[in-house]
């Protein structure tokens, strides 16, 4: 494994952050013709097939007994709850706001690690980063409460709770036997369980499913399952195998930046000064928290 990032790794991380930021836009565009939870379920189903194909090509054995079934099922249920909340939340708020709230997840992880992962103590920089991000969230959420756009705060809150479930999934992986298995198997637990749970939840909620298919709707869905769940996930696995994850994680602050810009560019969302202020605080918080100790 290389100890530093070369130009190719840096270029790939910037590309993946762009993809992960734009996916919020793709979700909103696809939601004009596909119900949100049903959309999330379809994505998990196709992504499961893609990752299984990757494990076959790489000869990664994901079916051996290793005592990870129960924590794997828990991680899958948390993952399903996360995406149900995100996809529903984006029906009530903008993609640019949603991506900022979503990327508070690393700070929920850091906070939970204080109790669940005592072997990973919080550094002062991490506390400072968390304070910056929390300030950004308070400012943005406060704007949603007083905004004339009715119900925007509901979407903000749902996505913020979804970020909490994302953090809970990460902590489950770190604090259980899942930490000892391959990243591919861990991801398959999450995708496989959500591929079963989300379509069932969609039926319970009475969603119409695919109700207004159009070329734009299907293109947005194709982007999610092929580019996001296929290209970016497989590319991430490759990067983690060849470069230090701590170095790669420093790029995470770029994703909300890309998401905010994509919302304004592709959806014409109004980017207020408050949005940019919150983005700056959350992005700075992520960067400060991920600086090498």
TrEMBL record:
<feature type="transmembrane region" description="Helical">
    <location>
        <begin position="251"/>
        <end position="268"/>
    </location>
</feature>
<feature type="transmembrane region" description="Helical">
    <location>
        <begin position="274"/>
        <end position="290"/>
    </location>
</feature>
<comment type="similarity">
    <text>Belongs to the EamA transporter family.</text>
</comment>
<feature type="transmembrane region" description="Helical">
    <location>
        <begin position="130"/>
        <end position="151"/>
    </location>
</feature>
<keyword id="KW-0812">Transmembrane</keyword>
<feature type="transmembrane region" description="Helical">
    <location>
        <begin position="69"/>
        <end position="88"/>
    </location>
</feature>
<dbReference type="Pfam" id="PF00892">
    <property type="entry name" value="EamA"/>
</dbReference>
<dbReference type="InterPro" id="IPR037185">
    <property type="entry name" value="EmrE-like"/>
</dbReference>
<keyword id="KW-0472">Membrane</keyword>
<feature type="domain" description="EamA">
    <location>
        <begin position="154"/>
        <end position="290"/>
    </location>
</feature>
<keyword id="KW-1133">Transmembrane helix</keyword>
<feature type="transmembrane region" description="Helical">
    <location>
        <begin position="157"/>
        <end position="179"/>
    </location>
</feature>
<feature type="transmembrane region" description="Helical">
    <location>
        <begin position="12"/>
        <end position="31"/>
    </location>
</feature>
<feature type="domain" description="EamA">
    <location>
        <begin position="8"/>
        <end position="141"/>
    </location>
</feature>
<feature type="transmembrane region" description="Helical">
    <location>
        <begin position="186"/>
        <end position="205"/>
    </location>
</feature>
<protein>
    <submittedName>
        <fullName>Multidrug DMT transporter permease</fullName>
    </submittedName>
</protein>
<dbReference type="InterPro" id="IPR050638">
    <property type="entry name" value="AA-Vitamin_Transporters"/>
</dbReference>
<feature type="transmembrane region" description="Helical">
    <location>
        <begin position="217"/>
        <end position="239"/>
    </location>
</feature>
<feature type="transmembrane region" description="Helical">
    <location>
        <begin position="100"/>
        <end position="118"/>
    </location>
</feature>
<feature type="transmembrane region" description="Helical">
    <location>
        <begin position="37"/>
        <end position="57"/>
    </location>
</feature>
<dbReference type="GO" id="GO:0016020">
    <property type="term" value="C:membrane"/>
</dbReference>
<dbReference type="InterPro" id="IPR000620">
    <property type="entry name" value="EamA_dom"/>
</dbReference>
């Amino acid at each position: 494994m290389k100890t530093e990032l070369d130009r190719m790794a840096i270029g790939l991380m910037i590309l993946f952050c762009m993809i992960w930021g734009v996916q919020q836009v793709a979700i909103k565009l696809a939601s004009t013709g596909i119900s949100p939870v049903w959309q999330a379920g379809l994505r998990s189903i196709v992504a499961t097939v893609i990752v299984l194909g990757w494990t076959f090509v790489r000869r990664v054995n994901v079916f051996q007994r290793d005592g990870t079934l129960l924590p794997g099922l828990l991680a899958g249920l948390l993952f399903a709850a996360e995406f149900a909340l995100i996809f529903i939340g984006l029906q009530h708020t903008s993609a640019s706001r949603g991506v900022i709230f979503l990327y508070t997840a690393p700070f929920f992880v850091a906070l939970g690690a204080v109790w669940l992962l005592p072997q990973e103590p919080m550094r002062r920089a991490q506390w400072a980063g968390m304070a910056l991000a929390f300030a950004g969230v308070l400012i943005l959420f406060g704007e949603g409460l007083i905004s004339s756009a009715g119900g925007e705060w509901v979407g903000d809150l749902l996505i913020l709770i979804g970020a909490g479930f994302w953090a809970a999934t990460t902590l489950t992986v770190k604090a259980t036997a899942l930490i000892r298995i391959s990243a591919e198997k861990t991801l398959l637990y999450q995708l496989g369980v959500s591929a079963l749970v989300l379509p069932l939840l969609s039926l319970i909620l009475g969603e119409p499913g695919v109700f207004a298919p159009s070329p734009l709707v299907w293109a947005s869905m194709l982007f999610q399952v092929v580019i996001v769940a296929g290209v970016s996930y497989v590319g991430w696995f490759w990067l983690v195998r060849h470069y230090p994850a701590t170095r790669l994680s420093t790029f995470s602050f770029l994703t909300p930046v890309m998401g905010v810009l994509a919302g304004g560019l592709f959806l014409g969302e109004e980017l207020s000064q408050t949005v940019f202020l919150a983005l700056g605080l959350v992005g700075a918080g992520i960067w400060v928290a991920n600086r090498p100790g």
